[in-house]
Amino acid sequence: MSRPGSSPDEKGVSQNGDPGGQCPLFTNTLNAPVSPETRLLSAFARDTQARKVDLAGREYYSEEGKPFELRLVGKIKQQLSTDPTLHPEYPSSLGLREFTRKATEVALGKHSRAIVENQVLGVQTPGFTAAVRLGAELLRCWYDLSADWCGPVYLSSPCDDSLAGIFQAAGIQEIREYYYWDDKQRGICLERLLEDLESAPEHSVVVLSASAHYPTGADLSQSQWAVITRLITSRRLFPFLLLPTQALCCGDMERDAWPVQHCASLGMELLCAQSFSHCFGLYGEAVGHLLCVLKQNSVLLPVQSQADKIVRSLWARPSVGGAHVVTTVLSNSAHLVEWQGEVKHIVERCMLIRAILREKLRLLGTPGRWDHLTQQGGLFCCTGLNGEQVEFLSNRRRVYLLPGGCLNVSAINCRNLDYIAESIHLALTSSL
Amino acid sequence: MVPQAAPVAVFKLTQDFNNDQFPNKVNLGVGAYRTDEGQPWVLPVVKKVEKIIVHDDRLNHEYLPILGLPEFRSSASKIVLGDNSPAIQENRVGAVQCLGGTGALKIGAEFLRRFYNGSNNTKTPIYVSAPTWENHNAVFSSAGFEDVRPYRYWDAEKRGLDLAGFLGDLESCPEHSVFVLHACAHNPTGTDPTQEQWKQIAEVMMRRKLFAFFDSAYQGFASGSLEKDAWAVRYFVSSGFEMFCAQSFSKNFGLYNERVGNLTVVARDADNLKRVLSQMEKIVRITWSNPPSQGARIVTITLTSPELFSEWQENVKTMANRVLLMRSQLKAKLQALGTPGTWDHITNQIGMFSFTGLNPKQVEYLVKEKHIYLMASSRINMCGLTTKNIDYVAESIHEAVTKVQ
After folding, report:
1. For the residues B217-242, what does the mean pLDDT come to?
2. Which one in A357, A390, B130, B287 has a CA-CA gap of 20 to 30 Å to B263?
3. A residues 117-156 closer than 8 Å to B (CB)
């Protein structure tokens, strides 16, 4: 059967049967099950009501309701586009050295003993998920290969719904949860968290949020960290820290990275996945970093060579655009000051929204405790609403939260604040 | 104890070159295009488009969708399959924006391991050409495939394609095996099947139910013509194959550092396509989740604007022509010097790389005595040649061939 016009052979292409004459190759491929988050987003997209409100997005939204680029970042991008020294070359698989150096410094602090004693490896990755994936893959060869370590990995309950899949894709099948968010307390329940970790087998990996926990916004205090690090050390567990929105919690790079610095100062080995998407408004640029703090300097080269090997079969090398911007800002004190100013504005706005929302709910007489709104920081917070109430909000009020009842604080603005407060109030007071 | 991974040869080569103090040293192991001045080249059209992007106020600053920029995916697929591709018109072509060509191979490999030839069939043989780009092996093995094997390809004696061997392996391999095919400008040999030979290859693959996974990293860069360099891919599509094509825009756009790749999927029908993409999205979600936008935006804007598109084609021709010039000059000089052996393969081969056919001792001579760096396999990158160093290189090859046996 010949196809006029498309056939490269004028005489016509003879085929064995009709197009795709053999059985379709992928008939066994079912449509992928839709994650609750995706279902939510599609529902929101299909919702034709003008009054719909999406509180489930991941980015920081400005008062105008859109993710935006920091002014400084826009300026720097323009500068970089006319920089004659930037060449189109393959970056190393581990990324730009200046970038990894800076990313390591902002997580550990410039004078960290681990840096001074050369026990640190930094790898630039295309985004946060990629950093977690690389870390997960590295874990497989971290321990003695003959023992073929395959878990378990402990994730907080709740956590980002893609985390389990990332570790499993890296070949680590055993994923467990540790108790974290307690609805009644509207915060972390340390006793139950410790119970779960006490019973973890040696060499288990524990994934902990360094700051601005996603999706609850509830973070461990410094004294809680002290207790946990003691437990990690005595039970020989391995900490994998998450730092996706550094500086957006306390407005300060260092304060948000305190847990990483604390663990490193205790001489612990650890992995830390970082992202610069949020704090630079570089969402589309996939700027991530995996920090490895090792016990001894002697394992640095082997770990580096394994990381290089793994990266080559995943994405080969990271993209450089966003990393150049971050490096430029972090390397220049004038830029740093300007950048910190813009970040402070973001953080203050989030804090203000939290305070106003809490006040509105109080004035409405909404049942439940809302102190946690202002006690927590960062972009996300957990309302404590249950499944039915979350559905009520989406079905009856067109207000979309994450399935667990958490929401993105920055998506609240002066235009929708009253409506949202009323909706939460109704969800909790209407008989369902 | 973390075991040290084996070092990658080409990077050691670059390191040694960098450390060499010899003033006339030549690096024929580079992996990127170089101008006649030996410099990397930002394509003029890319510079133009970068300015457009940086001054565009209406740009969306959100995370990209997991599958990537929709306009990028469709324009990239069109470029390899052709505007009038019936498969596109029949709505059975889709794509995933990936982190470079490697990323596209990765996602395709991960999908195949899960859903091709039964579920999670890690025993399906994956055939890569002998020789091939060293990373092919790593990508498929790390995706879980246990059996990555070579198919005969390069005939060292005749310095050309071992078609009989290739067809022989196609006839004798297990049904449903996956074959990684180089769309054009085979890396590292520079030797491509002719159109007639591709037809023979396709016939056997269709009959024996083998899966075609194209790797297209040099479209336009090889011959200077986008259509010509995509002929094999388009032929397979028109023959009715369901197949993948991993595209890279690193070389033909000079966007090495922005990681712009596209995995084009040609499925049986729209429904199948939908299922495949939905599963690929899940795979991407746990690999890098959202791809970077910069490179994809540059490519999209260029491909979808007629003026910029022509300018890009001119830029690509500039690169391809310089390579063709170096090839013909090198061959001419070797013939003029009376260097023993035949050197037709230098102009018969195409693309960035050439298998010179020098033996390991001769290669060592070039590296150690003449400070000319090339792979132990005798592969050279034509882009490392310039009008200034070509005489030195030709003379050195002459010396190596006559002095060292």
Report:
1. 97
2. B130
3. 125-130, 133, 141-142, 144-145
